[in-house]
Specification:
The chain has 128 residues and is mainly α. It has four helices and two strands, in the order αββααα. The chain has helices spanning 2-26, 48-70, 76-99, 108-127, and strands at residues 30-31, 40-41.
Amino acid sequence: MDILVAIFGGVMGAAMAGIWARDILSGHGYDAPHGLLRAREADSDDLMIWHWAAEFGTALVLIAGAFLIMINAALAEPIMLLGLGGLMYTSTNSLGWSLASPERAPYVYPMAGGLIGAIVSAAVLVLF
C-alpha cells in the first residue's frame, strides 16, 4: 500500500511543480512589473511569493516523501504525512478559488482529487 502512496505523492508533487513553473514562466495569473518577489495576483493585492512558496514547498516534500518511501527510509512516513498535509491545505485553498467563478469549474476536479487523494493516502499511512 505504501508504494501507491509514494506514486500518488510523487505524481502530485511533480504535477504541482510543473504546473506552477509553467505558469510562472508564461506570466499567467500574476502581475510582476517590479520582479517576481513583488509579483501580485492578477486583479488583487495578494503577493504571489507566499502562495508559490506553499505550492513548491508542498511539491518538494511530496517528492521527497515518495523517494524516501521507495528506499524504505526511517523518516519516510513523517515526511510524506507532512507533504500530504500540505496537499490537503493547498487543494482546499485552491478549491475555494476554483469554485468562486463558473469559468474556473474545470479546476474543481483536480483540486478535489488532490484533497481526497491526500486524505486517503494519509489514512493508509497511519492505519496500515
